[in-house]
Amino acid sequence: MNDSDLHRTTDVQDIIERLRSLANPKNVAGMARFGINPENTLGISIYILRDIARELRRDHDLALALWDTGIHEARILAAYLADPKQVTGEMMENWAADFDSWDVCDQVCSNLFDASPLAIEKAAAWSSRAEEFVKRAGFVLMAALAVHNKQLPEEPFETFLQIIVREAGDPRNYVKKAVNWALRQIGKRSRDLNEKAIQAARQIPSQVHHDASAARAAKWIASDALRELTSEKVQARLKR
């Protein structure tokens, strides 16, 4: 082991010890009620994790080491510390395969993966995956790209809308909420995309009818999105 390896090990150990010192078992129980996996979870507030991330410089190797600990909060911290420029397709696939909770999925996708040049490709690919949190990740990426990447042209989002219509019949809770999130964020990006998102939402119920649970999911996704996208508040902002 060279000096840099030893320093890295010490960094990871120090951070994990710090995280364990902040553990709050009562918070873990509360998080579980909101659908967050309690396994390997310490119960640390996201605000505290963000403060810790601000103290630490961006360090991709450290992020990888933190992810490998399997600790819930260490993985969220890893999303803040990793370098988007060093994110590879293999890394994205490996981390996505590890997603076991909606909050880790969302933090990684909206604070790291969405800044990768591979984000559009992965959003489309993951949208049809069988694994619940991998599929969720595809739609979270769509939502994050709509909000964060102001330089993207409209074409990728038009493709995403077609995918949203296609996948709106997935009744799994964490998938349907992400599909709805992506639809709403795309529809608030511009006036043109708002019109296309409204059209997509109105198309969804007629496209999904293979079983009752799928139909219910599609109806909820469409009606909830339409409520926001056609609202006076959103329409006024887009006109400005």
Could you give a quick summary of the protein structure above?
With about 240 residues, the chain is an all-alpha fold.
Number of strands: 0
Straight-line distance between termini: 59 Å
Question: What is the mean pLDDT?
Answer: 93
Structural class: mainly alpha
Query: What percentage of residues falls in helices of 4 or more residues?
Result: over 70%
Q: Work out the radius of gyration.
A: 19 Å
Give the topology.
Layout: H1 3-21, H2 25-33, H3 46-55, H4 60-68, H5 72-81, H6 89-98, H7 102-111, H8 119-126, H9 132-148, H10 155-167, H11 173-187, H12 191-207, H13 212-229, H14 232-239
Structural write-up:
This protein has 240 residues and is mainly alpha-helical. It folds into two domains: 1-82, no CATH class; 102-240, Serine Threonine Protein Phosphatase 5, Tetratricopeptide repeat (Alpha Horseshoe), CATH 1.25.40. Helices cover 72% and strands 0% of the residues. It is built from 14 helices and no strands. The protein has helices at residues 3-21, 25-33, 46-55, 60-68, 72-81, 89-98, 102-111, 119-126, 132-148, 155-167, 173-187, 191-207, 212-229, 232-239. Residues 1-8 have low confidence and may be disordered.
